[in-house]
Hints:
The complex is a heterodimer.
Chain A: E1 5-7, E2 10-13, E3 19-24, E4 29-37, E5 43-50, E6 53-56, E7 65-68, E8 75-79, E9 88-96, E10 106-107, E11 111-115
Parallel strand pairs in A: 2-11
Antiparallel strand pairs in A: 1-3, 3-8, 4-5, 4-9, 5-6, 7-8, 9-10, 9-11
Chain B: E1 4-5, E2 10-14, E3 19-25, E4 30-38, E5 45-51, E6 56-59, E7 62-67, E8 72-77, E9 86-94, E10 101-103, E11 107-112
Parallel strand pairs in B: 2-11
Antiparallel strand pairs in B: 1-3, 3-8, 4-5, 4-9, 6-7, 7-8, 9-10, 9-11
Amino acid sequence: NAGVMQNPRHLVRRRGQEARLRCSPMKGHSHVYWYRQLPEEGLKFMVYLQKENIIDESGMPKERFSAEFPKEGPSILRIQQVVRGDSAAYFCASSPSDPQLTDTQYFGPGTRLTVL
Amino acid sequence: DQQVKQNSPSLSVQEGRISILNCDYTNSMFDYFLWYKKYPAEGPTFLISISSIKDKNEDGRFTVFLNKSAKHLSLHIVPSQPGDSAVYFCAARLQTGANNLFFGTGTRLTVIP
Lengths: 116, 113
């Protein structure tokens, strides 16, 4: 039973390039969350998605950042025109289809983005 | 605005003794609390949770206590083992149904053999 999968595990980009981070939720999970962890800080919520819908993007910067969770395939977090301040660990979590029944989010191993 | 706070960045405990990790929160609308454990270069691993309608939840060596009036929760690990050495994050969820978690900044636990 595979857990939450994220790829790539490490991503290096130069300023101005685009970064694409992928997340495949656990089997049977249709809710996906993205969090960002800056050095020496806790995880900060960015966006919550269900299949083909963004439910809550209140934690996501208004510019350059976007997320999607298509009907088929993984969830994608896209960062356009990356800047050094985007360097962080990006974690994806998933939860079962009905969050009212189970409140626990299960996390992937993260993608460590480094912007040169 | 840090709504979930872990004021001790680190804690060292002798193997076999009790580890107590503390967490405070400011928002009385939180209704569900979780503890995660994180090793370097890995994602957080769920440990134990507690609903706001309870004041204690136990799972093996791990017990979480919730004091709603003080807006305080703690994680007790007994007996502590060297494999418990990791960063522990406290997280909370709002009762409004928004499912995002609010995380503390973490406490690094070191269990000394």
